[in-house]
Amino acid sequence: MRQLIARVDDELHRRLKAKASSENRSLNELVTEALSRVVDGSASLRTVRQRARSSGMLVEVEGTDQAPDLDELEAETRGFGRGVGQALEADRGEW
Fold this sequence. Notes:
Helix 1 crosses helix 2. This protein has five helices and no strands. With 95 residues, the protein is mainly alpha-helical. It has a domain at 10-54. InterPro entries: Arc_rbn_hlx_hlx, Ribbon_hlx_hlx, Uncharacterised_HicB.
């Protein structure tokens, strides 16, 4: 295992320490995971969901047992207008 020394500004260091503390993790563990994600170019679904949840951007919807039938769907969308359909019709042939 290698050791890496990096210079970071005081504010970033404070934020890293606070984040590690709030997740009950060591600063080393947090930084190692972050560097791995950068090098791999990906983030796990769990990490993405955690970030979305902590920023208030995650919307979790409880599913129903079954999808609405056509009559229910028509009743729920009645009055929405034809805006999307009209826009699609207007753009047909321009692609």
